Amino acid sequence: xxxxxxxxxxxxxxAARRRVARTGGExxxxxxxxxxxxxxxxxxxxxxxxxxxxxxxxxxxxxxxGGPGGPSGSPVIGSGGTSDAVSGTTGxxxxxxxxxxxxxxxSQAYAVLAVPRLxxxxxxxxxxxxxxxxxxxxxxxxxxxxxxxxxxxxxxAGHRNTHGEPFRHLDRLRPGDSxxxxxxxTTYTYVVDQVLPRTSAADGGVLAPVPRSxxxxxxxxxxGGYYLTLTTCTPEFTSRYREVVWGVLASARPR
Length: 255
Known about the structure:
255 residues; alpha+beta; elongated; eight-stranded mixed barrel
């Protein structure tokens, strides 16, 4: 009679492989859950948090200024301001060259940008720091560019995705759309004039006092004026390129 041989070593190996497979499966599930939570945090929580903070800041600015701004009084720049800005006409009236008097403090919100087509109202802060400005859902003013209403180029940036994503739908703007910038003393209305769908992130020409793309020279201007530049990342969920929207000043009304 044969005595059965029990291969304990083989059994131990099979048991070890099962444990490794079970542990690996648990690790994969854990990693998947963590990644899902990170995606939820980036795409939902950061937006919710930043939007609420941005809305509170807009309300705080309006309270500080004595209530929501709006068109009132006579235009400082006439209804023909669009053609004036494109042609580079600067005018002779001191009121026409009116601008924000005090230099904004870095990372401090000092204006409100409203885009009716996008149902957007967002605070404008000095600088384009991610943590100090953009990740709060604010629109950031490029240091060294003009202030609202000044001759030159008032240039700003905003996130397209996550952290409030104020410029998520910037690609929906078309020539003729209005962009309103409210400050403590004045409400400036710019009219969208040109759209540059994509350019290099290093295309500094779009921020020049007379903006013109160095990558796509057919986009931009060749004379001084009162310009607004809106920039954001493109395509969505990347930061490889920049989308640019230009506007020209149409009117400026005291609050």
